[in-house]
Each structure stands twice: as C-alpha cells, then as structure tokens.
Design a protein that fits this description.
23 strands, alpha+beta, 7-stranded mixed beta sheet, 675 residues, globular, 10-stranded mixed beta sheet, 23 helices
Length: 675
C-alpha cells in the first residue's frame, strides 16, 4: 500500500515496535494477530509493503471493503488512498501509479531489460550504508548498491528480473528520509550502435560533433549487410567513423579540437577572469589557437595492441573478437575483427587461429551472465618489425591442474608449431606467449594479476625515433607507433621553447618521453606510481645507453616537494601525459607550488579531463590555489586514432609570475596589459 510505505520510510531508525504500531494505527490496517510485544517492525513492513515474509499470508490479504472503510475513517489532513491488496490477482492501479516515475519495468526493445538501475531524488546526506539499511528494512533485496559522496542518486544492481520487479513495486511512491520527492528509479538511456565507453570518454567530443558524423544511421542495404555479416556489425561499435573518408574525419576532429580550446577558455574564466580577458585580447603569435591537426601517417591496421573478447557470436559459436554492444544493454554477442580497419593483420590472424582452437576445445568461453566458462580474453601486441606477443586470459577456478597444463601445451603447439597445421590459416610470427588466470567476475583483471610466460622471449622490441624499447604484456606504449613519433616530436618542440635545462616527466610510464627528452636536455627525472613501469623504464634507459635520466617510483604529489627541497631545481619544464582520467588534483597543486617549474607540456587523450585540469592550473591565487597560475600559450592535436572520435592534444602552459595593478608578467618577461 503506497501511503503506508511512504510513511514507513522516515521512521526506519525509530524503535521498531513503536514505529510499527504508529504506522498501523495511522493507516487503519492493524492485523488481528499483531501485538507490539511479539512482532517487530520488519514484520509490519512486510505486511504494509505486501510481501509474504514475516506475516502469514492469510492476514496479508485484507478485504477491499476493509481498506475502503479505513480510508473513510481517516482523520482530517491525512491522505490514504484505497487500493486492493498486492496479492490480489488483478490489482487496481491508481492514477498516481500510472503516472509514476518508476521506469525500466519492462523489456528493453527485445534485448532484455537491464539489471542495473539508478535511484534518484535521494538526500545528499543519506549515506550508502544507511540507505542499504533502510532498503533492507523495507524488505527490498538487491545484489549491489553504490552511492558516492553527497550525490542525490545511487546505483543499484539486481540478480534477476524478478528481484528487480519486486524492488520497483516496493519503492513505488516511497519518499526516503531527507528528501521531499518520491524516489525516481530509471534505467540509463543509451544509444544503440555506439561504443558506450568511448562515448563516455569523449563526451566533450560528441557534444561538438554533429550526429550525422557520429551516429549516422545505416541505410537499408547497409543494415542488411550488417545482419548478414557479423564482422560488419562490429564496426559501428569499435570504429564509429569507419564510413567517413579520412579527410572528412580530419575536418570533424579539427572542429572538435577547436571546441576543446573554447571549453578551456570558459573553464579559465570561471576561476581567473583576468587571465581569460588577456587570452581573448591576445592576437597574432600570442593568441591561443589550434596550431595544427597532425594526421596519422597510416589509417589501416595501425593498432599495435588489441584486447579481444572471447565469447559467442550471434549464432552461438565460440568467437574471438569484439563485443557487439554493452552488457548493460543485454548484448553479449561477439563479432570477429576481420573487417576492422584499425586492427593489425597479424592480430586478426592470431584471433582467427585461436577461434578455431577454442571451437575444437572441450572448454567453453566465459559467459558474462552466468560467470561460468574458461576462455576470457586474448591480448595481441605487435611491432613495426612484425614481432607478435600474445597473452591468453582464462578462468581456471573450476579446471583441474592436469587440464590446465594440457591447454597450455596445446596453445604452445598452436602458435609455435605452425608448419604442420591447416594451410588455410595465416602464419603468425609469435615471439612471446603468456598465460593469465583471472577468476574474478569483472572483465578487467586487477593490475597485479600475474602474467606467466609459457614460451618464447619475455618481451618484444620496438623502435621509436631511433630508440629501442622493450614491451611486456602490461607495458604502456602508444597504440599507433608512426603517429606517436609525430606526437613526441611535437612534445619535444614545445618543451624546447621553455629554455629549461631539466625535464620533469610526470606519469612517465615506461620512460618513452623521458628517453626522447634526454637527448636534448641536461637532466630528465621521470616519476610514476607503477613499480613495473619504472623497472621497464630503467631497462629501456640501459638498453639505449642513456645516463642523464633518473626514474622515481612514487606519487607525483609526494615526489615533487622532495625533489624541490633536495635538488634545488632551476628552470624546469614538466611534461604530463596522464591516463584518460587526467592528473590527480594534488599533483596539480604540487606543480603550482614548485617555483622551478615554469612551463608545463600537457599531453591529453581525454578532452574532458584536459578542460578540468586547465581550470586547476590557471585558477587565480588563493588559499586553496597556492602558487602562481599557468596560462595556455600554444596547442595542437594529433590523430592517433583514425576511424574513432578520439584524438590527442598537446598544450603548452607558461607560468604567470605576477599580476600587479592590472598587469601580468609572464615567465619570459613579457608584459601583458589588461584590456
């Protein structure tokens, strides 16, 4: 009964028997067998919400006449709507229920309804643990609940459709403590045919791109071709721009980069209006504008790293390839990568060879819905010299050690004894074969999950700008090697403008940027939190005979203050190439507090995080923003990801060392008057 459930929620923390008796008295629904000494609030909640636990079913089925009489006896000011009991075969639905904001109760376009929902209209002060207690006290069951900080929403996940429907029914019209609105439960609206993770990461990109480019609906002939050929269906998910000629893709990305700069100007104005005025008034060489968009030297087969999902195609056959959609949308089918324009031919050959092997195997692919199965993922890494590294990920918890060893031996024979196999398969020059066991439910294995070398060399070799790099399964290396060379040359050019003698490489990874900078700068210091990455960076420095570079395994926000105190750094340029999520706020604070850092070269693969970090770097001085702010003075973009919405941007920031009486002196001594 909706009003009873509404009244129940705010009193979940009251003494249970007292709250239960008060609620039943208010709603005129006291069962004849109930007494405050023998029944707890949980029993009454079960009775009021219409569940079968805690109270005998014969007492739950109240006659409709009793409910109507109770409504007629309601005191003035009380609103109690009469309704037939929940257990009745045909329950009358009140008009308010028809217009209820509870959504997602039906199937989702024939693809199965989502088991992940979003609860809205919550109180900011309602914490996750208390919310879970309230929901469980109301008889609501769920698999997972997540509420972050002071947000007004929470994410809830269910084990089955029946559990979700029961949850929606119990929460209909309920107002939780601290809120004056009924709970709104919705399933996230998602567009079909687009890689959801890519769309989320490039939200700023998508807002600048016409739908005709990003989400162009296929023609009738194209749609039929996708149904006939699963390899074509993959393209809309992983390479949304594949139908666009490359020169058209560059036009779109040029507009995207320009819009990112506009968003940066807006972010600067929010925290430093004076700087924003100076940027807008600058002309000529001093104006902040997009220097250029550098095209990728190659657009076909450029990816040197591909992570393939092992699952079943639309016909139910085991397949190694890419997912055709998101699991949250009920899509679990996998399509082959044969026609993906960005996948290296050797990676396609390796996936085809493993697909044939799995179809002969007695072990099945991992199923996301049941979390059962053996084969999970295939990682393929290639080099410009056609060296190939493979890593096969499996779920081993239900397989005997003897069977595991048998599969390992079969994989070694599959990839290292290719002379006597089926001639229809293209030969793959595999140099390294790894084995990884991941028994968790999530797709991504934890960072510390070991990679076991089954056969071959422990690493493959790649060359970039006349430097040699060893690449292991977990090493970070730009996925487009020819375009990465152009990217790093641009970074080197921006860093050289600073006139600095020391380079501080923040988030240095395996040391790619550090080693490139070491040839033109006196001292290079690389900082990264990942110990394996630092070990790879040191090995790469030794392999190239570079001695003027030092690598430190630590957080940037912790390492920077110590470096300033112990090294007496002078005229330093910081190069930041963070992950897609951007720099940690404390790392930005450390850069601002370090007076030796006069320039920052920011390399970004995420436009949203670039705009956010720009706001922190350029914010006017205050108690929270210590140190003189930085100002963007130059920017360019590099297309490392043809056929996708993503691109890399490089921005040069210069520190403003003063702002007195309307004038600001930059680090190079140039006076910029406020207009």
């Amino acid at each position: 009964l909706q009003p009873a459930a509404t009244r129940l929620a705010p009193h979940t923390l009251a003494p249970p028997r007292l709250a239960a008796r008060a609620l039943l008295t208010c709603c005129h629904l006291r069962p004849p067998h109930w007494s405050p000494t023998t029944h707890t609030a949980r029993d009454v909640r079960a009775f009021v919400c219409g569940t079968r636990s805690g109270v005998e079913q014969k007492h739950m089925e109240q006659p409709a006449e009793m409910v109507a009489a109770a409504a007629a006896e309601t005191p003035a000011g009380e609103v109690v709507q009469a309704a037939a009991p929940v257990s009745a075969p045909e329950r009358a639905v009140a008009p308010e229920e028809e217009a209820s904001d509870v959504e997602g109760s039906g199937s989702d376009d024939g693809e199965g309804s989502s088991l992940k929902m979003c609860m809205m209209n919550l109180s900011k002060s309602l914490r996750e643990k208390r919310l879970a207690t309230i929901l469980k006290g109301m008889g609501c069951s769920f698999a997972k609940l997540r509420k972050v900080g002071l947000q007004r929403y929470a994410h809830v996940e269910f084990e089955s459709e029946e559990q979700k429907q029961a949850f929606l029914e119990r929460m209909r019209g309920v107002t939780l403590p601290g809120s004056n609105k009924p709970v709104l439960i919705k399933k996230k609206e998602r567009q079909r045919g687009v890689n959801r993770d890519m769309a989320r990461k490039a939200s700023l990109v998508n807002s600048a791109v016409p739908d005709a480019y990003l989400l162009r609906a296929p023609t009738a002939e194209e749609a039929q071709a996708e149904r006939d050929d699963p390899a074509l269906a993959v393209l809309a998910s992983v390479t949304p721009y594949w139908r666009l000629p490359y020169d058209e893709q560059l036009k779109v990305k040029t507009q995207v980069a320009t819009n990112v700069l506009d968003a940066m100007r807006g972010a600067i104005r929010e925290g430093n209006a004076a700087m924003a005025d100076r940027i807008n008034a600058a002309t000529g060489a001093n104006a902040l504008q997009l220097g250029s968009l550098i095209a990728s030297p190659t657009t076909q087969g450029y990816r040197n790293k591909c992570s393939f999902t092992i699952g079943r195609d639309s016909a139910g056959h085991p397949t190694v390839g890419f997912s055709l959609g998101q699991y949250i949308d009920g899509i679990t089918a996998v399509g082959p990568p044969d026609k993906c324009p960005h996948v290296h031919p050797l990676a396609i050959a390796a996936a085809s060879r493993l697909t044939a092997h799995i179809r002969r195997s007695t072990l099945i692919p991992f199923e996301k819905k049941t979390h059962a199965g053996f084969w999970r993922q295939l990682l393929v890494r290639t080099t410009e010299t056609s060296e190939v590294m493979l890593s096969v990920q499996v779920k081993s918890v239900e397989v005997s050690p003897e069977q595991l060893q048998k599969e390992k031996d079969a994989l070694i024979k599959l990839f290292f004894d290719q002379d006597n196999d089926d001639p229809s398969f293209e030969k793959v020059p595999v140099h390294s074969l790894y084995w990884q066991e991941h028994n968790g439910m999530s797709n991504a294995a934890p960072a510390n999950t070991p990679q076991v070398l089954l056969h071959g060399a422990p690493a493959i070799k790649e060359s970039l700008l006349d430097l040699k790099f060893s690449i292991s399964p977990d090493s970070f290396f730009q996925v487009n090697t020819p375009a990465a060379a152009l990217l790093y040359q641009s970074v080197l050019e921006f860093a050289s403008r600073s006139g600095a003698s020391t380079v501080l490489d923040v988030c240095c990874g395996t040391g790619t940027i550090s080693l490139i900078m070491a040839r033109q700068f006196a001292t290079v210091i690389g900082v990264d939190i990942s110990e394996p990455a630092i070990l790879d960076a040191k090995a790469n420095a030794d392999a190239n005979g570079i001695t003027n570079v030092e690598f430190i395994c630590d957080k940037a926000e912790s390492a920077l203050p110590r470096l300033v105190m112990s090294r007496q750094l002078e005229k330093t340029v910081a190069i930041c190439d963070p992950p897609r999520g951007g720099l940690h706020p404390k790392a930005i604070q450390a850069l601002r507090k370090c007076p030796a850092v006069q320039h920052v070269v920011y390399v970004s693969c995420g436009p949203d995080s670039l705009v956010r970090d720009t706001a922190f770097l350029c914010r006017a001085m205050s108690k929270r923003a210590v140190g003189h702010p930085f100002r963007p003075v130059a920017a360019l973009a590099v297309d490392l990801f043809p056929h996708t919405p993503l691109l890399e941007m490089v921005v040069l920031f210069e520190r403003e060392v003063g702002n007195i009486e309307g004038k600001s002196a930059t680090s190079s001594g140039e006076a910029l008057e406020r207009p």
